[in-house]
Amino acid sequence: MDDLNDVLRWDGFRVFIDGSDLAQVEAIEGGACSTISVNAVRRAWTPEETKLRDAFGGFLDGSTEDEITEKLLVPLFMQLGFQRISVAGHRDKQLEYGTDLWMKFQLPTRHWLYFGCQIKKEKIDSAGRSECNVATILNQITMMLDNAILDPEVNRKQLLDHIFIISGGVITKAARYWLGERLDASKRRHLIFMDRSELLDLFIANRLTLPVTAHEQPPF
After folding, report:
1. What is the CB neighbour count within 10 angstroms for residue 90?
2. Any idea which fold 40-214 has?
3. Which residues lie closer than 8 Å to 32 by C-beta, 6 or more apart?
4. Alpha carbon 68 to chain centroid, angstroms
């Protein structure tokens, strides 16, 4: 592989092995990668992929929010091309104003976009007991948008461009509507929702490896 990369480097590319032991090609400068195609998450899954998808679902059910963040979301975002992925520990969350994870993504123009994540394991709903949970999320969203995070690579504070609301369960339409109604248009446009079904599809499409702690034997 080193010999191959010595040749490809002249054309601005390199080869690496991803988490599924597959060879991938990456542009050294732009960061474009062969790990996923645009329509990969829209195709029908094979029986093996369906079984693995169910295994990922079992991991979501049996893990804490910290385990989901560190063992699934961090590898996923790395695979998708995000950089400087930083997870806030329990002590750091007060300093990060409710941000569970932040990262940045470089556009083809070489400009950077900054993303924050609010991560919940359970279903997010605006009805019944979940009302207080959604109210807490609303408060955290407001703090995340109003307070800058420190990017140590440039030694400068940056405001978040977008916020992922991520749930290991379902994010109901009522919850999305509840949050949207209580945010003005300028803040509402920053939100990106990602629930259980979308996460599972992304895990399979990006060939993510199921964490070894989630099972004793591989699902197939």
Report:
1. 7
2. Restriction Endonuclease (3.40.91)
3. 26
4. 10
CA distance 115 to 76: 14
Distance between CA atoms of residues 110 and 105, nearest Å: 9
| Amino acid present at 202 | L
pLDDT in tens, 56-108: 999 999 999 999 999 999 999 998 999 999 997 544 444 456 789 999 999 98
Contact assessment for residue 161 and residue 114, using Cβ atoms and an 8 Å cutoff: yes
Asked if residue 118 lies in contact with residue 164, where contact means CB atoms within 8 angstroms, the answer is: yes
Q: Which pair of structure tokens corresponds to residue 6?
A: 């010595």
CA distance 122 to 133: 10
Gyration radius from the chain CA atoms: 19
Q: Are 161 and 113 in contact (CB under 8 A)?
A: yes
- When comparing pLDDT for 11 and 35, which is higher? 11
Through-space distance between the first and last CA atoms of the chain, rounded to whole angstroms: 29
In sequence order, what E strands does the chain have? 13-17, 23-27, 83-87, 101-106, 112-120, 149-151, 156-158, 162-167, 191-194
Domain extent listing, the chain: 1-35, 40-214
CA distance 45 to 52: 10
Query: Rounded to two decimals, what is the model's pTM?
Result: 0.75
